[in-house]
From TrEMBL:
PANTHER family: DELTA-1-PYRROLINE-5-CARBOXYLATE SYNTHASE, GLUTAMATE SEMIALDEHYDE DEHYDROGENASE. This is Delta-1-pyrroline-5-carboxylate synthase-like protein. Coiled coil: none annotated. Keywords: Amino-acid biosynthesis, ATP-binding, Cytoplasm, Kinase, Nucleotide-binding, Proline biosynthesis, Transferase. GO terms for molecular function: ATP binding; glutamate 5-kinase activity; glutamate-5-semialdehyde dehydrogenase activity. Residues 1-157 form the Aspartate/glutamate/uridylate kinase domain. GO terms for biological process: glutamine family amino acid biosynthetic process. InterPro entries: AceGlu_kinase-like_sf, Asp/Glu/Uridylate_kinase, Glu/AcGlu_kinase, Glutamate_5-kinase_CS. It holds the Pfam family AA_kinase.
Length: 204
C-alpha cells in the first residue's frame, strides 16, 4: 500500500485501502456500505485500493473461499466490478492478452475477442503469470463471470505504456470479453472503436 501512496502522491492524488474478505459479499449490509463508501471516496477524489483481509479470511485453502469458490485478486476484481456496477473491468497481466496457446509458443495467436462457445475448448494455458497468484486461467474465469453478468472485461498487459488510457480511448488492446461477443462471429474483426462502443452501450 505504501507504494500506491507514493506513486499516487506524485500525481497529487490520494488513495485509501479497503480490506475485504470472501464472506463480506454475502452480507447485504456490507455490500450497501461498500457502495456508499466507494461513492464517498470517489466524490472526494480518493482512489480506493482493495485488498483481501488475509488476517480474518475464512478461506480453507489459498485459492478457495469459505464455500470452496476459487478466490484470488482477479475474482475479487470481478466481484467488485459487479457489486459497484462498473462500466468496464480491466485485468492486467504480464502478457498482451489471452493467447490461443502458451504466449511463448510462436504458433500461439492473440485472441482479440473472446467467444466462449468457440474458445473455451480450444485454448491451452501456459505457466502462471509472474504477477498475481492465479495466472491467466484465473483471469479468464473472472473475465467470463463478469462479462456474462453484464460487465465488459479487457485483459491486457500492465507493462504496455499508457495501457489504461488506450483502453479507455477505444484502441485495440488485449482481449475483450463481452456477453454479446457470440453475435459478432460473422465479422472477421471487431475494430477498436466497435469494441469501445459495445462496452459503453452495454453499461447503460
Amino acid at each position: 500500500m505504501a507504494l500506491y501512496d507514493t506513486l499516487f502522491s506524485q500525481l497529487d492524488v490520494s488513495s485509501a485501502q479497503l480490506l475485504v474478505t470472501d464472506s463480506d459479499f454475502r452480507d447485504k449490509d456490507f455490500r450497501r456500505q461498500l457502495n456508499d463508501t466507494v461513492k464517498s471516496l470517489l466524490s472526494l477524489k480518493v482512489v480506493p485500493i482493495f485488498n483481501e483481509n488475509d488476517a480474518v479470511s475464512t478461506r480453507r485453502a489459498p485459492y478457495e473461499d469459505s464455500s470452496g469458490i476459487f478466490w484470488d485478486n482477479d475474482s475479487l476484481a470481478a466481484l467488485l466490478a459487479l457489486e459497484l456496477k462498473a462500466d468496464l473491468l480491466v485485468l492486467l497481466s504480464d502478457v498482451e492478452g489471452l493467447y490461443s496457446g502458451p504466449p511463448s509458443d510462436p504458433r500461439s495467436k492473440l485472441i482479440h475477442t473472446y467467444i466462449k462457445e468457440k474458445h473455451q475448448t480450444e485454448i491451452t494455458f501456459g505457466d502462471k503469470s509472474r504477477v498475481g497468484r492465479g495466472g491467466m486461467t484465473a483471469k479468464v474465469k473472472a473475465a467470463v463471470n463478469a462479462a456474462y453478468a453484464g460487465i465488459p472485461v479487457i485483459i491486457t498487459s500492465g507493462f504496455a505504456p499508457e495501457c489504461l488510457t488506450k483502453v479507455l480511448q477505444g484502441q485495440r488492446m488485449g482481449t475483450l470479453f463481452h456477453q454479446d461477443a457470440h453475435l459478432w462471429c460473422s465479422f472477421k474483426e471487431v475494430d477498436a472503436r466497435g469494441m469501445a462502443i459495445a462496452a459503453r452501450e452495454s453499461s447503460r
